[in-house]
Amino acid sequence: MATDFSNLTDERLAELSELLASYSNGDFSAQGRISENFDALDTIILGINMLGEEIHERAISRDFMTSVFKAVKDLLFTVDAYGLITECNEAAEYGLGLGKEKIIGQDLKSFFQFSDEDLERLNRYRGGQSNPGDGIGIEGTFNSFSKGKRYIHCDISSLFNRDSPSGYVILIRDITEKKMADKILLRAMVSTLEEERKRVANDLHDSIGQELAGLRIILSHMLKMPSDAGATSVKDKDMCISIIDHTIQGLRDVCYNLLPSSLLGGGLYQTLLELKRRIPKDTRLHIEYDKVMEVFPLSLQVDLFRIIQEFISNTLKHARAKEVHLTFKDLGKNGVQMSISDDGIGFNITSIPPPGRGSHTIKSRAETFNGLVHMSSSPGAGTTLTVTFNLENYEEYNTFDHR
Amino acid sequence: MSELLLSWDGPILIADYQMKSADRDMGESVVNQRLTFTNGVPCLVLVKNQALMSMTKGARDFFSSEVGTQGIMAAAIITDTLYKQSLTNFFLSVTRPSIPTRMLKDGQKAKEWLLTFQI
How high is the ipTM of this complex? Predict the structure, then answer.
Protein backbone atom coordinates (compact mmCIF):
# COMPACT_ATOMS: atom_id res chain seq x y z
CA MET A 1 0.00 0.00 0.00
CA ALA A 2 1.82 3.11 -1.21
CA THR A 3 1.39 6.30 0.78
CA ASP A 4 0.08 9.08 -1.40
CA PHE A 5 0.73 12.60 -0.16
CA SER A 6 -0.19 14.26 -3.47
CA ASN A 7 -3.40 15.75 -2.11
CA LEU A 8 -1.74 17.68 0.68
CA THR A 9 -2.45 21.39 0.67
CA ASP A 10 -1.36 24.22 2.94
CA GLU A 11 -4.94 24.54 4.17
CA ARG A 12 -5.18 20.90 5.32
CA LEU A 13 -1.75 21.02 6.91
CA ALA A 14 -2.81 24.18 8.77
CA GLU A 15 -5.92 22.31 10.04
CA LEU A 16 -3.74 19.44 11.24
CA SER A 17 -1.39 21.89 12.95
CA GLU A 18 -4.38 23.53 14.68
CA LEU A 19 -5.65 20.14 15.85
CA LEU A 20 -2.29 19.29 17.38
CA ALA A 21 -2.16 22.72 19.05
CA SER A 22 -5.57 22.05 20.64
CA TYR A 23 -4.32 18.74 22.01
CA SER A 24 -1.18 20.40 23.33
CA ASN A 25 -3.43 22.81 25.25
CA GLY A 26 -5.33 19.90 26.80
CA ASP A 27 -8.43 20.21 24.57
CA PHE A 28 -8.85 16.60 23.52
CA SER A 29 -12.43 17.14 22.40
CA ALA A 30 -11.20 18.76 19.15
CA GLN A 31 -11.63 16.61 16.03
CA GLY A 32 -9.86 16.92 12.68
CA ARG A 33 -11.86 17.00 9.46
CA ILE A 34 -11.54 13.96 7.22
CA SER A 35 -11.91 14.50 3.50
CA GLU A 36 -13.73 12.30 1.03
CA ASN A 37 -10.40 11.16 -0.36
CA PHE A 38 -9.41 9.03 2.65
CA ASP A 39 -5.82 9.70 1.74
CA ALA A 40 -2.66 9.58 3.80
CA LEU A 41 -3.39 12.81 5.64
CA ASP A 42 -6.93 11.59 6.42
CA THR A 43 -5.39 8.42 7.84
CA ILE A 44 -3.16 10.48 10.14
CA ILE A 45 -6.08 12.71 11.18
CA LEU A 46 -8.24 9.62 11.81
CA GLY A 47 -5.55 8.27 14.13
CA ILE A 48 -5.24 11.61 15.94
CA ASN A 49 -9.03 11.88 16.29
CA MET A 50 -9.28 8.43 17.85
CA LEU A 51 -6.30 9.13 20.08
CA GLY A 52 -8.03 12.35 21.21
CA GLU A 53 -11.23 10.46 22.05
CA GLU A 54 -9.32 7.96 24.17
CA ILE A 55 -7.30 10.63 25.99
CA HIS A 56 -10.38 12.81 26.45
CA GLU A 57 -12.25 10.03 28.26
CA ARG A 58 -9.25 9.13 30.39
CA ALA A 59 -8.63 12.80 31.25
CA ILE A 60 -12.24 13.18 32.42
CA SER A 61 -11.92 10.02 34.47
CA ARG A 62 -8.54 11.14 35.87
CA ASP A 63 -9.82 14.63 36.74
CA PHE A 64 -12.85 13.14 38.45
CA MET A 65 -10.75 10.71 40.47
CA THR A 66 -8.32 13.50 41.39
CA SER A 67 -11.18 15.61 42.73
CA VAL A 68 -12.52 12.61 44.71
CA PHE A 69 -9.00 12.00 46.06
CA LYS A 70 -8.78 15.65 47.15
CA ALA A 71 -12.27 15.76 48.63
CA VAL A 72 -11.68 12.82 50.99
CA LYS A 73 -11.12 14.26 54.47
CA ASP A 74 -9.52 11.07 55.78
CA LEU A 75 -5.88 10.28 55.08
CA LEU A 76 -5.65 8.44 51.78
CA PHE A 77 -2.56 6.67 50.45
CA THR A 78 -1.67 4.31 47.67
CA VAL A 79 1.28 2.02 48.31
CA ASP A 80 3.15 -0.44 46.11
CA ALA A 81 3.53 -4.16 46.75
CA TYR A 82 6.38 -3.43 49.19
CA GLY A 83 4.37 -0.97 51.29
CA LEU A 84 6.13 2.10 49.89
CA ILE A 85 3.84 5.10 49.45
CA THR A 86 3.19 5.98 45.81
CA GLU A 87 0.56 8.72 46.26
CA CYS A 88 -1.31 10.56 49.03
CA ASN A 89 -4.03 13.19 49.34
CA GLU A 90 -3.91 16.66 50.90
CA ALA A 91 -5.42 15.40 54.18
CA ALA A 92 -2.49 12.99 54.49
CA GLU A 93 0.01 15.81 53.93
CA TYR A 94 -1.76 17.93 56.55
CA GLY A 95 -2.09 15.07 59.03
CA LEU A 96 1.58 14.14 58.79
CA GLY A 97 2.67 17.78 58.58
CA LEU A 98 4.86 16.91 55.60
CA GLY A 99 4.90 17.81 51.92
CA LYS A 100 4.14 15.11 49.39
CA GLU A 101 7.80 14.94 48.34
CA LYS A 102 8.74 13.78 51.85
CA ILE A 103 5.94 11.21 52.01
CA ILE A 104 6.15 9.52 48.61
CA GLY A 105 8.60 6.64 48.54
CA GLN A 106 8.52 6.18 52.34
CA ASP A 107 7.40 2.98 54.05
CA LEU A 108 3.89 3.43 55.44
CA LYS A 109 5.12 1.88 58.70
CA SER A 110 7.57 4.77 59.19
CA PHE A 111 4.57 7.04 59.88
CA PHE A 112 2.06 4.64 61.43
CA GLN A 113 2.47 2.13 64.22
CA PHE A 114 0.57 -1.17 64.23
CA SER A 115 0.45 -4.07 66.64
CA ASP A 116 2.41 -7.22 65.75
CA GLU A 117 -0.88 -9.05 65.44
CA ASP A 118 -2.27 -6.55 62.91
CA LEU A 119 1.02 -6.52 60.99
CA GLU A 120 0.76 -10.29 60.77
CA ARG A 121 -2.77 -9.97 59.37
CA LEU A 122 -1.52 -7.39 56.89
CA ASN A 123 1.30 -9.69 55.78
CA ARG A 124 -1.14 -12.55 55.32
CA TYR A 125 -3.32 -10.26 53.19
CA ARG A 126 -0.36 -9.12 51.11
CA GLY A 127 0.76 -12.73 50.79
CA GLY A 128 -2.52 -13.51 49.06
CA GLN A 129 -3.93 -15.63 51.87
CA SER A 130 -7.12 -13.55 51.85
CA ASN A 131 -9.37 -12.71 48.95
CA PRO A 132 -7.86 -9.47 47.51
CA GLY A 133 -11.36 -8.20 46.76
CA ASP A 134 -12.29 -8.33 50.44
CA GLY A 135 -9.78 -5.86 51.87
CA ILE A 136 -8.89 -5.76 55.56
CA GLY A 137 -9.19 -3.31 58.44
CA ILE A 138 -6.48 -2.82 61.05
CA GLU A 139 -5.98 -0.33 63.87
CA GLY A 140 -2.91 1.59 64.95
CA THR A 141 -1.57 4.95 66.05
CA PHE A 142 0.39 7.85 64.64
CA ASN A 143 1.69 11.21 65.77
CA SER A 144 -0.37 13.90 64.13
CA PHE A 145 1.42 17.09 63.22
CA SER A 146 -1.23 19.24 64.93
CA LYS A 147 -2.93 16.92 67.44
CA GLY A 148 -0.25 14.61 68.85
CA LYS A 149 -0.86 10.91 69.30
CA ARG A 150 -3.95 9.73 67.45
CA TYR A 151 -5.67 6.37 67.19
CA ILE A 152 -6.44 5.28 63.64
CA HIS A 153 -8.40 2.70 61.70
CA CYS A 154 -6.98 1.66 58.31
CA ASP A 155 -9.08 0.15 55.53
CA ILE A 156 -6.76 -1.59 53.11
CA SER A 157 -7.86 -2.80 49.68
CA SER A 158 -5.96 -4.16 46.70
CA LEU A 159 -5.43 -1.87 43.75
CA PHE A 160 -5.66 -3.31 40.27
CA ASN A 161 -4.30 -2.07 36.97
CA ARG A 162 -5.93 -3.92 34.06
CA ASP A 163 -6.77 -6.90 36.32
CA SER A 164 -3.21 -7.17 37.70
CA PRO A 165 -2.55 -6.25 41.36
CA SER A 166 -0.56 -3.05 41.44
CA GLY A 167 -0.45 -2.21 45.13
CA TYR A 168 -2.94 -1.11 47.76
CA VAL A 169 -5.17 1.80 48.58
CA ILE A 170 -5.23 2.70 52.27
CA LEU A 171 -7.85 4.91 53.90
CA ILE A 172 -6.87 6.05 57.38
CA ARG A 173 -9.57 7.39 59.70
CA ASP A 174 -8.90 9.17 62.98
CA ILE A 175 -10.84 7.26 65.66
CA THR A 176 -9.31 8.96 68.69
CA GLU A 177 -12.57 10.64 69.79
CA LYS A 178 -14.48 7.39 69.43
CA LYS A 179 -11.80 5.50 71.37
CA MET A 180 -11.94 8.10 74.16
CA ALA A 181 -15.73 7.98 74.24
CA ASP A 182 -15.62 4.18 74.37
CA LYS A 183 -13.14 4.34 77.24
CA ILE A 184 -15.29 6.80 79.19
CA LEU A 185 -18.33 4.62 78.62
CA LEU A 186 -16.49 1.48 79.65
CA ARG A 187 -15.16 3.27 82.74
CA ALA A 188 -18.68 4.44 83.57
CA MET A 189 -20.03 0.91 83.18
CA VAL A 190 -17.26 -0.59 85.33
CA SER A 191 -17.79 2.12 87.97
CA THR A 192 -21.54 1.58 87.92
CA LEU A 193 -21.01 -2.14 88.39
CA GLU A 194 -18.60 -1.49 91.28
CA GLU A 195 -21.01 0.94 92.91
CA GLU A 196 -23.80 -1.57 92.54
CA ARG A 197 -21.65 -4.25 94.22
CA LYS A 198 -20.75 -1.83 97.01
CA ARG A 199 -24.39 -0.90 97.48
CA VAL A 200 -25.48 -4.57 97.65
CA ALA A 201 -22.67 -5.30 100.12
CA ASN A 202 -23.71 -2.31 102.27
CA ASP A 203 -27.38 -3.32 102.10
CA LEU A 204 -26.56 -6.88 103.15
CA HIS A 205 -24.23 -5.70 105.91
CA ASP A 206 -26.29 -2.82 107.28
CA SER A 207 -29.74 -4.38 107.25
CA ILE A 208 -29.72 -8.14 106.93
CA GLY A 209 -26.30 -8.62 108.54
CA GLN A 210 -27.17 -6.41 111.52
CA GLU A 211 -30.55 -8.01 111.95
CA LEU A 212 -29.16 -11.55 111.83
CA ALA A 213 -26.49 -10.55 114.36
CA GLY A 214 -29.21 -9.14 116.65
CA LEU A 215 -31.24 -12.31 116.22
CA ARG A 216 -28.24 -14.39 117.18
CA ILE A 217 -27.76 -12.37 120.40
CA ILE A 218 -31.41 -12.78 121.39
CA LEU A 219 -31.39 -16.51 120.63
CA SER A 220 -28.14 -16.95 122.66
CA HIS A 221 -29.73 -15.04 125.50
CA MET A 222 -32.87 -17.22 125.31
CA LEU A 223 -30.82 -20.42 125.43
CA LYS A 224 -29.15 -19.22 128.63
CA MET A 225 -32.45 -18.36 130.28
CA PRO A 226 -34.14 -20.85 132.67
CA SER A 227 -36.91 -22.89 131.05
CA ASP A 228 -39.51 -21.22 133.26
CA ALA A 229 -38.68 -17.65 132.16
CA GLY A 230 -42.33 -17.24 131.05
CA ALA A 231 -43.30 -13.74 129.87
CA THR A 232 -39.68 -12.69 129.13
CA SER A 233 -39.29 -15.68 126.82
CA VAL A 234 -42.51 -14.83 124.97
CA LYS A 235 -41.33 -11.22 124.53
CA ASP A 236 -38.01 -12.41 123.09
CA LYS A 237 -39.76 -14.80 120.71
CA ASP A 238 -41.95 -11.95 119.45
CA MET A 239 -38.86 -9.87 118.92
CA CYS A 240 -37.23 -12.71 116.97
CA ILE A 241 -40.25 -12.94 114.66
CA SER A 242 -40.19 -9.17 114.18
CA ILE A 243 -36.48 -9.25 113.32
CA ILE A 244 -37.03 -12.12 110.87
CA ASP A 245 -39.87 -10.13 109.21
CA HIS A 246 -37.54 -7.15 108.88
CA THR A 247 -34.81 -9.38 107.45
CA ILE A 248 -37.19 -10.82 104.86
CA GLN A 249 -38.28 -7.30 103.88
CA GLY A 250 -34.63 -6.22 103.70
CA LEU A 251 -33.85 -9.18 101.47
CA ARG A 252 -36.79 -8.27 99.24
CA ASP A 253 -35.47 -4.70 98.97
CA VAL A 254 -32.02 -5.93 98.00
CA CYS A 255 -33.53 -8.25 95.38
CA TYR A 256 -35.80 -5.47 94.11
CA ASN A 257 -32.85 -3.17 93.64
CA LEU A 258 -30.94 -5.87 91.78
CA LEU A 259 -33.81 -6.77 89.46
CA PRO A 260 -37.44 -6.32 90.43
CA SER A 261 -39.20 -9.66 90.32
CA SER A 262 -42.33 -7.84 89.15
CA LEU A 263 -40.49 -6.93 85.95
CA LEU A 264 -40.04 -10.60 85.16
CA GLY A 265 -43.50 -11.59 86.32
CA GLY A 266 -45.82 -8.64 85.77
CA GLY A 267 -44.09 -6.39 83.24
CA LEU A 268 -43.00 -2.77 83.27
CA TYR A 269 -46.27 -1.26 84.47
CA GLN A 270 -46.46 -3.45 87.60
CA THR A 271 -42.85 -2.61 88.36
CA LEU A 272 -43.48 1.12 88.01
CA LEU A 273 -46.43 0.83 90.42
CA GLU A 274 -44.12 -0.90 92.88
CA LEU A 275 -41.55 1.85 92.38
CA LYS A 276 -44.26 4.41 93.05
CA ARG A 277 -45.08 2.72 96.36
CA ARG A 278 -41.43 2.82 97.40
CA ILE A 279 -40.93 6.52 96.74
CA PRO A 280 -41.03 8.69 99.92
CA LYS A 281 -44.46 10.26 100.48
CA ASP A 282 -43.28 13.88 99.95
CA THR A 283 -42.58 13.18 96.27
CA ARG A 284 -45.45 11.95 94.10
CA LEU A 285 -44.97 9.93 90.93
CA HIS A 286 -47.68 10.24 88.25
CA ILE A 287 -47.65 7.57 85.58
CA GLU A 288 -49.38 7.85 82.22
CA TYR A 289 -48.83 4.42 80.76
CA ASP A 290 -49.34 3.04 77.26
CA LYS A 291 -49.80 -0.69 76.87
CA VAL A 292 -47.71 -0.63 73.70
CA MET A 293 -44.73 -0.94 76.03
CA GLU A 294 -45.70 -4.51 76.91
CA VAL A 295 -44.94 -5.77 73.40
CA PHE A 296 -41.35 -4.59 73.59
CA PRO A 297 -38.66 -7.05 74.60
CA LEU A 298 -37.98 -7.58 78.27
CA SER A 299 -34.42 -6.30 77.85
CA LEU A 300 -35.79 -2.94 76.66
CA GLN A 301 -38.27 -2.84 79.55
CA VAL A 302 -35.43 -3.52 82.00
CA ASP A 303 -33.33 -0.74 80.49
CA LEU A 304 -36.28 1.66 80.52
CA PHE A 305 -36.93 0.83 84.15
CA ARG A 306 -33.26 1.44 85.01
CA ILE A 307 -33.35 4.79 83.20
CA ILE A 308 -36.48 5.80 85.14
CA GLN A 309 -34.96 4.53 88.39
CA GLU A 310 -31.76 6.52 87.74
CA PHE A 311 -33.72 9.69 87.00
CA ILE A 312 -35.91 9.32 90.11
CA SER A 313 -32.89 8.51 92.26
CA ASN A 314 -31.23 11.77 91.12
CA THR A 315 -34.49 13.66 91.64
CA LEU A 316 -34.81 12.37 95.23
CA LYS A 317 -31.16 13.09 95.99
CA HIS A 318 -30.77 16.54 94.45
CA ALA A 319 -33.93 18.08 93.01
CA ARG A 320 -36.17 18.61 96.07
CA ALA A 321 -39.11 17.90 93.75
CA LYS A 322 -42.71 17.40 94.81
CA GLU A 323 -44.03 15.92 91.56
CA VAL A 324 -42.56 13.56 88.99
CA HIS A 325 -44.49 12.92 85.77
CA LEU A 326 -43.80 9.83 83.71
CA THR A 327 -45.48 9.39 80.31
CA PHE A 328 -45.24 6.90 77.47
CA LYS A 329 -46.35 7.82 74.00
CA ASP A 330 -46.91 5.48 71.07
CA LEU A 331 -45.49 7.29 68.02
CA GLY A 332 -46.74 4.64 65.60
CA LYS A 333 -44.23 4.03 62.85
CA ASN A 334 -41.83 6.45 64.54
CA GLY A 335 -41.53 4.21 67.60
CA VAL A 336 -42.27 5.03 71.20
CA GLN A 337 -41.34 7.89 73.48
CA MET A 338 -40.77 7.89 77.22
CA SER A 339 -40.72 11.24 78.97
CA ILE A 340 -40.03 11.88 82.64
CA SER A 341 -39.92 15.28 84.31
CA ASP A 342 -39.75 16.74 87.81
CA ASP A 343 -40.67 20.14 89.27
CA GLY A 344 -37.46 20.36 91.25
CA ILE A 345 -34.81 23.04 91.50
CA GLY A 346 -33.28 22.07 88.16
CA PHE A 347 -29.73 22.90 87.18
CA ASN A 348 -27.76 24.77 84.55
CA ILE A 349 -27.23 22.00 82.04
CA THR A 350 -24.33 23.80 80.34
CA SER A 351 -22.35 24.43 83.52
CA ILE A 352 -22.52 20.87 84.78
CA PRO A 353 -19.22 19.06 84.16
CA PRO A 354 -19.15 16.59 81.25
CA PRO A 355 -22.07 14.18 81.42
CA GLY A 356 -22.02 12.51 84.79
CA ARG A 357 -22.06 8.81 85.35
CA GLY A 358 -25.81 8.68 85.56
CA SER A 359 -26.44 10.38 82.25
CA HIS A 360 -23.72 8.30 80.60
CA THR A 361 -25.41 5.13 81.74
CA ILE A 362 -28.80 6.43 80.58
CA LYS A 363 -27.33 7.31 77.18
CA SER A 364 -25.54 3.99 76.73
CA ARG A 365 -28.64 2.03 77.76
CA ALA A 366 -30.76 3.98 75.27
CA GLU A 367 -28.20 3.64 72.47
CA THR A 368 -28.26 -0.15 72.64
CA PHE A 369 -31.86 0.16 71.38
CA ASN A 370 -31.17 2.96 68.88
CA GLY A 371 -32.72 5.34 71.39
CA LEU A 372 -32.35 9.11 71.20
CA VAL A 373 -31.86 10.85 74.54
CA HIS A 374 -32.69 14.48 75.22
CA MET A 375 -32.36 16.13 78.61
CA SER A 376 -33.37 19.69 79.41
CA SER A 377 -33.10 21.62 82.65
CA SER A 378 -32.53 25.10 84.00
CA PRO A 379 -32.38 26.53 87.53
CA GLY A 380 -35.87 26.67 89.07
CA ALA A 381 -37.56 25.03 86.07
CA GLY A 382 -37.17 21.33 86.86
CA THR A 383 -35.63 18.66 84.69
CA THR A 384 -37.04 16.69 81.77
CA LEU A 385 -35.62 13.57 80.16
CA THR A 386 -37.02 12.28 76.88
CA VAL A 387 -35.99 8.99 75.30
CA THR A 388 -37.31 8.05 71.87
CA PHE A 389 -36.94 4.51 70.55
CA ASN A 390 -37.36 3.71 66.91
CA LEU A 391 -37.40 -0.06 66.82
CA GLU A 392 -38.30 -1.48 63.45
CA ASN A 393 -37.25 -5.02 64.31
CA TYR A 394 -37.26 -4.95 68.04
CA GLU A 395 -37.48 -8.76 68.28
CA GLU A 396 -33.78 -8.89 67.49
CA TYR A 397 -33.05 -7.07 70.74
CA ASN A 398 -34.68 -9.72 72.88
CA THR A 399 -31.45 -10.92 74.46
CA PHE A 400 -32.75 -10.90 78.02
CA ASP A 401 -35.22 -13.70 77.97
CA HIS A 402 -35.86 -14.80 81.52
CA ARG A 403 -39.45 -15.67 80.93
CA MET B 1 -30.44 0.10 2.62
CA SER B 2 -29.54 -2.33 5.45
CA GLU B 3 -26.59 -1.36 7.61
CA LEU B 4 -25.26 -4.90 7.48
CA LEU B 5 -25.29 -7.65 4.85
CA LEU B 6 -24.98 -11.16 6.24
CA SER B 7 -24.33 -14.43 4.41
CA TRP B 8 -22.79 -17.85 5.03
CA ASP B 9 -19.66 -19.11 3.35
CA GLY B 10 -19.59 -22.67 4.67
CA PRO B 11 -19.12 -22.43 8.44
CA ILE B 12 -18.03 -18.78 8.21
CA LEU B 13 -20.45 -15.88 8.59
CA ILE B 14 -19.62 -13.01 6.20
CA ALA B 15 -20.53 -9.63 7.69
CA ASP B 16 -20.35 -6.72 5.28
CA TYR B 17 -20.83 -3.32 6.89
CA GLN B 18 -22.68 -0.96 4.58
CA MET B 19 -22.72 2.16 6.77
CA LYS B 20 -20.07 4.86 6.40
CA SER B 21 -19.81 5.58 10.11
CA ALA B 22 -20.86 3.79 13.27
CA ASP B 23 -21.85 4.98 16.71
CA ARG B 24 -22.87 2.91 19.71
CA ASP B 25 -26.57 2.71 18.79
CA MET B 26 -25.68 1.50 15.33
CA GLY B 27 -23.31 -1.02 16.89
CA GLU B 28 -26.12 -2.42 19.06
CA SER B 29 -28.39 -2.59 16.02
CA VAL B 30 -25.95 -4.59 13.86
CA VAL B 31 -25.09 -6.97 16.72
CA ASN B 32 -28.84 -7.66 17.17
CA GLN B 33 -29.15 -8.27 13.40
CA ARG B 34 -26.25 -10.72 13.53
CA LEU B 35 -27.61 -12.60 16.55
CA THR B 36 -31.04 -12.85 14.88
CA PHE B 37 -29.43 -14.15 11.68
CA THR B 38 -27.40 -16.84 13.52
CA ASN B 39 -30.09 -17.61 16.13
CA GLY B 40 -27.41 -16.85 18.69
CA VAL B 41 -25.35 -19.92 17.68
CA PRO B 42 -21.63 -19.16 18.15
CA CYS B 43 -19.82 -18.80 14.83
CA LEU B 44 -16.70 -17.60 13.02
CA VAL B 45 -17.08 -14.15 11.48
CA LEU B 46 -15.33 -12.56 8.53
CA VAL B 47 -15.85 -8.79 8.56
CA LYS B 48 -15.69 -6.90 5.28
CA ASN B 49 -15.50 -3.17 5.73
CA GLN B 50 -16.51 -2.01 2.27
CA ALA B 51 -17.98 1.29 3.42
CA LEU B 52 -17.17 1.90 7.09
CA MET B 53 -14.84 4.88 7.39
CA SER B 54 -15.28 6.00 10.99
CA MET B 55 -16.33 4.66 14.39
CA THR B 56 -17.00 6.70 17.49
CA LYS B 57 -15.33 5.67 20.73
CA GLY B 58 -18.71 4.40 21.92
CA ALA B 59 -18.95 2.11 18.89
CA ARG B 60 -15.37 0.87 19.28
CA ASP B 61 -15.90 0.12 22.97
CA PHE B 62 -19.19 -1.67 22.26
CA PHE B 63 -17.81 -3.80 19.38
CA SER B 64 -14.97 -4.98 21.61
CA SER B 65 -17.12 -5.65 24.68
CA GLU B 66 -18.53 -9.03 25.77
CA VAL B 67 -22.00 -7.96 24.62
CA GLY B 68 -20.71 -6.74 21.26
CA THR B 69 -18.76 -9.95 20.63
CA GLN B 70 -21.51 -12.24 21.90
CA GLY B 71 -21.88 -15.31 19.63
CA ILE B 72 -18.51 -14.81 17.93
CA MET B 73 -15.83 -17.47 18.38
CA ALA B 74 -13.23 -15.54 16.34
CA ALA B 75 -13.29 -12.66 13.88
CA ALA B 76 -11.11 -11.69 10.94
CA ILE B 77 -11.31 -8.17 9.52
CA ILE B 78 -10.39 -7.62 5.88
CA THR B 79 -8.90 -4.24 5.04
CA ASP B 80 -8.02 -2.97 1.60
CA THR B 81 -6.68 0.56 2.16
CA LEU B 82 -4.18 2.24 4.44
CA TYR B 83 -6.99 4.34 5.88
CA LYS B 84 -9.11 1.31 6.91
CA GLN B 85 -5.99 -0.46 8.10
CA SER B 86 -5.31 2.44 10.45
CA LEU B 87 -8.89 2.41 11.73
CA THR B 88 -8.85 -1.35 12.31
CA ASN B 89 -5.39 -1.37 13.81
CA PHE B 90 -6.43 1.25 16.37
CA PHE B 91 -9.52 -0.79 17.22
CA LEU B 92 -7.49 -3.97 17.73
CA SER B 93 -4.55 -2.52 19.63
CA VAL B 94 -6.25 0.15 21.77
CA THR B 95 -9.81 -1.06 22.36
CA ARG B 96 -8.81 -4.75 22.46
CA PRO B 97 -11.77 -6.99 21.61
CA SER B 98 -12.44 -9.80 24.08
CA ILE B 99 -12.30 -12.58 21.41
CA PRO B 100 -9.50 -13.64 19.03
CA THR B 101 -9.49 -10.99 16.30
CA ARG B 102 -7.05 -10.41 13.48
CA MET B 103 -6.70 -7.90 10.65
CA LEU B 104 -5.78 -9.34 7.25
CA LYS B 105 -5.65 -8.12 3.64
CA ASP B 106 -6.21 -11.48 1.97
CA GLY B 107 -9.73 -12.97 2.25
CA GLN B 108 -8.55 -16.54 1.68
CA LYS B 109 -5.90 -16.32 4.40
CA ALA B 110 -8.49 -14.81 6.71
CA LYS B 111 -10.80 -17.81 6.19
CA GLU B 112 -7.94 -20.25 6.79
CA TRP B 113 -7.08 -18.48 10.02
CA LEU B 114 -10.72 -18.50 11.13
CA LEU B 115 -11.07 -22.24 10.44
CA THR B 116 -8.36 -22.94 13.00
CA PHE B 117 -10.98 -21.96 15.62
CA GLN B 118 -13.63 -24.35 14.25
CA ILE B 119 -14.74 -26.88 16.86
Answer: 0.83
